[in-house]
Amino acid sequence: FFLLCVAFTPFPTAIVGEYGMLAGAQIFYAGSVVVTGVVKLILWWYAAHNRRLLEPETTDAQIRAVTMRGFVTPAVFLISIPFALVHPAIPIVLWISTAMIYGLARLLFRR
């Protein structure tokens, strides 16, 4: 299902590229990013549960750090959805800020 989400990504990207200032396009794009991010988190949880697919020496702190950083993109894009109805520039600013927020999360949740 994750690869289906990834393969689907060019379609909402093209929609937001063509109609980027319309709330519907922004909501559609943000929604697809949220779904992809959540599916990725589910895959990570599966892999990390009881270190099922991880190296045995992987620490709990490392697992927590990767998990917390995995929440950044879906959370930012989910938060951007209602803002698309307020002003079309706000979601774009939030999307761009994702890199900075991810960097901050990386500092807060170091391995």
Which keywords apply here?
111 residues; mainly alpha; globular
Quick overview of this protein structure:
The protein is mostly helical and 111 residues long. The protein has six helices and no strands.
Q: How would you describe this protein?
A:
The structure is a single chain. By secondary structure, this protein is mostly helical. It has one domain. Helix content is 78%, strand content 0%. Helix 1 runs antiparallel to helix 3 and helix 3 runs antiparallel to helix 5. The mean pLDDT is 93.
Number of helices: 6
Shape: globular
Oligomer: single chain
State the secondary-structure class: mainly alpha
> What's the SSE pattern?
HHHHHH
Helical amount among residues, as a percent range? over 70%
Q: In terms of per-residue confidence, which ranges show pLDDT below 50 for 5 or more consecutive residues? A: none
What distance separates the N and C termini? 28 Å
- The count of strands amounts to 0
Cα radius of gyration in angstroms: 16 Å
Mean pLDDT: 93
Range of strand content? under 5%
**How many structural domains does the protein architecture include?**
1
- Largest β-sheet summary: none
Question: Could you give the topology of this structure?
Answer:
Elements: H1 2-8, H2 10-19, H3 23-48, H4 60-70, H5 72-84, H6 89-108
